[in-house]
């Protein structure tokens, strides 16, 4: 293993992640039930149908995010540490086993190698990921592996990833995940409701999912790459928020097109407008295809510029990812040693 050099970070307001203490906040512990949750509002189809999206302007704006603001040196390291606390560390494979879940839980508890933590001088931050995200049948194993850590277990549900199983089965799957100990539920919406403009059906579906979740927080996966237009992304975002979603999420990670910055920009502006209208804060979760540290920085810049520092917190922003953490760890090692390491030196589990 390469020898590391002590390079203590001072995380202040200029780092973009506020203070060192704030960087640690949200690193562990779940969102308190009932604490400022989005209660939803009655469906307003006029408002939904009034949503517009200028694709060329949105794509032009998204293309500038990584170019207009350059984050380097210790500021980059600070932003990457913040990104670590926002990761929903995920395994959604057909060959998942309790053993794999336990190994991934160990990574969730200590996402950055101890020698790098010491070299960065951030031992006091007690870094943790946002959650461990698994299939419903793996929830019990994840809960057991994370006892005493304060890291919540997140479960996909409601017929993930297609959302085409019978509705009672989808509701039952949510109930079972919550009963097994999941504190966060990522459901998938029925895409045809968006594609056919049946906003009442989508609203009713998400309301039913929210009720089934109880105190568990609801993230609605919209599968943005399958919704056809950016306007549909805006309309689906509004409908899900009106129905009481705590988060709106881009993708399952299984679509041909997953999380993109134009999708994120549309969602962020919907969240901002919904907050201005209702006072409720709704989180955003990009997922699928985000595997590079540079990409995580672009998303954090988007959130900072469109929604402000308040949303740069695990309670309002998450990454759905698996390989992202390894690349962030590689970048942090490069900042410490000046050399890039191989991916196999940063195993996920």
Any overview of this molecule?
The chain has helices at 20-24, 45-49, 55-68, 73-84, 98-109, 114-120, 139-145, 167-179, 191-195, 199-213, 230-242, 261-278, 293-307, 323-337; strands spanning 87-90, 131-134, 153-157, 184-188, 217-221, 247-249, 283-285, 319-321. It is of the alpha/beta class. It has an eight-stranded parallel β-sheet with strand order 7-6-5-4-3-2-1-8. Helix 7 links the parallel strand 2 and strand 3 (153-157).
What order do the helices and strands come in, and which of them pair?
Blueprint: H1 20-24, H2 45-49, H3 55-68, H4 73-84, E1 87-90, H5 98-109, H6 114-120, E2 131-134, H7 139-145, E3 153-157, H8 167-179, E4 184-188, H9 191-195, H10 199-213, E5 217-221, H11 230-242, E6 247-249, H12 261-278, E7 283-285, H13 293-307, E8 319-321, H14 323-337
Parallel strand pairs: 1-2, 1-8, 2-3, 3-4, 4-5, 5-6, 6-7
Helix pairs in contact: 3-12, 4-13, 4-14, 8-10, 10-11, 11-12, 12-13
